[in-house]
Amino acid sequence: MASPRSKPVRGRFLTLLLCLSGAALAADNNGAAAVQWLEKMNLAVISMNYEGHFVYQCGDSLEAMHLRHHIGEDGPRESLSSLTGVPREVLRDSESITIITNRNGKLHISQQPAAGKLSPLKSIQPEKLLQNYRIALGGMVRIAGRPGVVVNLMPNDSLRYGYRLTLDKMSALPLDLMVVDRDGAIQSRIMFTDLKITDVDLLSLHHPDKEDKEAAESLMLAKLGADAGDAVVEKKSVAMQAETNDTAWIFSSLPAGFSLIDYQKSPHSGLEHFVFSDGLATVSAYLEPLDNDKAFEGFTNLGSVRVFGRQLKDYQLTIVGEVPQKTLELLAASVQYRQP
User: Fold this and answer.
1) Which end of the chain has a smaller Cβ tally under 10 Å, C or N?
2) Residue 38, Cβ neighbours under 10 Å: how many?
3) Which pLDDT belongs to residue 204?
4) Which of 157, 160, 156, 163 is nearest to 189 (CA)?
């Protein structure tokens, strides 16, 4: 015969199980909803035309920028202008990146083949992130005068930082991106102060018609405050895409979750550039022949970006990334030279 206390105890136990099951289900639903928001964001950043001002905080530095992004028949066109510090503007289309700078009142124009994106609004892969991050919704906030949905991406280990994304509720475009350490301290932040979904055409900024060229040039000079008469034009080449079997360097054991996503080699300087990512955090490793006996050794910080250097044979190894110091150390320890 059951004791008088057994039924209440069993009842409380079943209640606890139901509560735990409900909490687990809610957590699963929360994570699934967060992933859906990230998938919406991926579609938005590649398919929408947008324009806005944002501030970029990195360590103790703070910059204000203006971004325009337009999808044309030939692909995306972007314009990124500085609103603080040295006047400069960067234009990118499917073929080239043009950097326009005011240096002591003179216009300097540098052009190189297109590579990567200017926009801080980038696509990510939620399915890959789930291997290294816990993804969950974090409530509603207001950024740039627009309601936003918070998505938290918290790391499963100490090899990467956490990320707090705020997505525009209407368009799913990112309004705010914070990179935080394990204690919640902000390492860097990109926050829009205004964002418009627009149909503005950037074509004239890249390939102005003859009749519009003078007007476009006058507008650009007014923004940069430089004299076009003495403009210095420089054309640069970028490192060539290469196969990893072209290198004598191997990375024997990468930090958990990271994999090689890009490799380039300069045919002129011998500089080799390896890019590793876990789907969100990115780390670059540079190897170049030493041109003197002095090598950069040890750690330094560039705002929230960590830099580690050491000499390997007659080469300088430099590893750069917005990740904890431990991650750079592990990557540096894995570099080995194999005899060609």
Assistant:
1) N
2) 20
3) 41
4) 163
Q: Let me know: does 78 contact 122? Beta carbons within 8 Å.
A: no
Residue-level pLDDT at 10? 54
pLDDT of 211: 41
* 333 token code pair: 């320890």
C-beta separation of 260 from 244 below 8 A: yes
CB 96 within 8 A of CB 233: no
Cβ–Cβ under 8 Å, residues 318 and 296: yes
Long-range contacts of 306-310 (CB under 8 A, 24+ apart): 308/332
Give the Cα separation of 212 and 206 in Å (integer).
12
Phi, psi of 24 (to 5 degrees): -65, -40
| pTM, rounded to two decimals | 0.75
Residue 164, SS3 per DSSP: strand
Counting as low any pLDDT under 50, the low residues of the chain are: 1-7, 21-27, 117-118, 200-222, 240
Between CA 195 and CA 42 the distance in angstroms is 17
Classify residue 66 by its DSSP letter. Answer: E
Cβ neighbours, 10 Å, residue 115: 13
- The Cα 54–Cα 44 span in angstroms is 18
The pLDDT value recorded for residue 123 is 58
**150, 169 Cβ separation under 8 angstroms:** no
Return the SS3 of 258: coil
